[in-house]
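User: Fold this; tokens only.

Assistant: Input:
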Amino acid sequence: MLDRTAPPVIVVDDLRKAFGRQQVLDGLDFTVARGEVFALLGPNGAGKTTTINVLTTLVRPDAGTATVAGVDVARDPDQVKRRISLTGQSAAVDDALTGIENLVMLGRLSGLTRRGARARAAELLDRFGLTDAAARRVGTYSGGMRRRLDLALSFVVAPAILFLDEPTTGLDTRSRRELWDVIRSLADAGTTVFLTTQYLEEADQLADRIAVLDGGRVVASGTAPQLKARVGGDAVELHDVHGTLLREVPTDGSVSGLRRALDVLDESGAEGVVTLRRPSLDDVFLALTSPDGQGSAHRGSRRREPADTLKELA
């Protein structure tokens, strides 16, 4: 459960990382509250996976600091690893073993007794909706089932913080939504979830707070409604039969506001199809990020701050 009164569980300050001449993280700053579902959005190449790799001690930063559960990731990586779990872009399961065998094996490797490992495996199979498939080889599982098992493996020893790097990549719509339900239940139970994703709907549905990453920096952050408000409010639009926009009238989205907007369109005498446009995370994403994730500063021009972009949209 989200607790904003407690100190942040993740703190990133001026984090920098380069691979050769490519500056991937370029002064990254953000915090994550305890029990929060925090989503990091950005185009390919923006630095999402590198950020997770630094926070999970897989990659050492060049400069800046990052602490996870109060522990510096560079100074004491072993202590960080004891407090976290990571699920990457592909399921790390053994196809030759059954679902329960995967879980029991990891339980034993994590120090549980044989009885304790089997009890924990049964509990997790039930929690992640895999009890009926427990005795089946994982090689026969669907993509959604494999991802749920992968998440279950992350909870053999329950972590305080769960890192999910694009966890629903490659899943169909039904499997993606099933996994969203699992992630919500984990957050409701008190786990802090750090999520990277390219699916804007996913961040909209799951995240308490979202940071938009571009060119190795956070260019905007806030709740989904706060970010959407930055790229304009609701508007009633009038289109002709070919879909061309004829007129746009801003509205606050209330019943009275919509009625006033429709009256304005009526008085104009124009004919066409009326629709209500509401800002989406797609609008935020397109307004604040570059196509290649490198940021405009990497293309030889001054870095575009969010305020610059929003002025252009006005």
